[in-house]
Specification:
The protein has one domain (13-391). The chain has helices at residues 22-42, 44-47, 52-56, 61-82, 90-116, 127-131, 151-170, 177-205, 209-215, 219-222, 227-241, 253-272, 285-308, 315-320, 323-330, 332-350, 359-391. The longest helix has 33 residues, at 359-391. By secondary structure, the protein is mainly α. The chain has 17 helices and no strands.
Amino acid sequence: MSESSPPAPEPLAGGKIRFPALDGCRALAALGVLITHVALVSGFSSRSPVLGPYLARMDVGVSIFFVLSGFLLYRPFVAARFAGESAGDVGAYARRRALRIIPAYWLALTVIGFVLKAPGFEQPHSIVSHYLLIQIYDSAQLYGGPIQQAWSLATEVAFYVFVPCWAWVMSRRDRSPSLQLRVEVIALVAIFVASAAANLGLIRIGVTDFTFAQLGTWLPFRIGDFIPGMLLAVGSAWVSHNKIRLKAWLSSAQVALGLWLAALAVFWFVSTQLGLPIFSTSFTPAQAYLVRVLYLLLATLLVIPAVLARSEKGFVTKTAGNPLAIWLGLVSYGIYIWHEAWQDIYLRITDQPVLNTSFLKMLTFTSVLTLISATLSWYLVEKPAIRWGSRHQGRSPQITVANPPSESSPTNP
């Protein structure tokens, strides 16, 4: 095998493909969400003129997770189309999606809302709405609730429904693989442009900050955040289908570092050069959408090296797919659904006011309790549910990367 021309990732048993470096992206996003919320709630982001703007913008994790979801969920469908195979049992797909998020979420929602009350259910928050993840469609329930950050789960659920529907639309005609590739790319770019136009239209007609924030959680206005991942899925599936030997430099350390440095440059720019308010709830619609676009650019630059990385221990895999990163990626869903509750409990037991407490003490307390909760969630709830679903699923294409949870902090609630 020529080192200057590495092969596409080889399928494992059952047509599965590993992308181990994606775990590092997931871990980074989850920890960023936790740190952002601690920095904001403790008031440190407001008190520190140097670090505060950076910590406030680590909520970029929302875009990272949406890009990951676009890639991981769409790739099996498009790979099946290129191969001329059935996309598999939609019922099995739906069962996997439900088992991946619902058991752990319902347990956390029950414990946080009714036992810890950190916070509990209070009007106008509906128990039914939060358990069914439809709270984002009621403007009165957009903010607050026992797991406020679950807004992104509701957005993800809509995307879960969209993926097989879109795959069905894309498979209605028999096409050659090369024509299918062109159709896929053109159609996805068209969706991105349409979603961007919808958001710009809202800004043009002058909707309120609150209305723009709420609509920004609805899939038609948020679908653009998933499109880069879906496009990466199309490209990755095409390379694998045709067994294309990519140039070695594409997966080199130099290219990865270049892309990651570009992502850092975007992070620096959005954190310091736009004059943004610390709290995203104070963004104007124009600011909110600009930040979302820049976040999406950052997330895409971060994820590309992980997609290009080969399964063996190259630079990217050693960096983003090391054992610690893999473990944090596994428990990242628990980090997402539990961390804000422990922040609330810290304030309660220390009797400290919001926006005026120790950042380091709150970060330590929140991190330790969150990691414990996330670990228990993974080993006692999530992993058993996934295994149970695997034993009862029908045939359908998939890849052997832990299904991406939707950990994220809201960019504008």
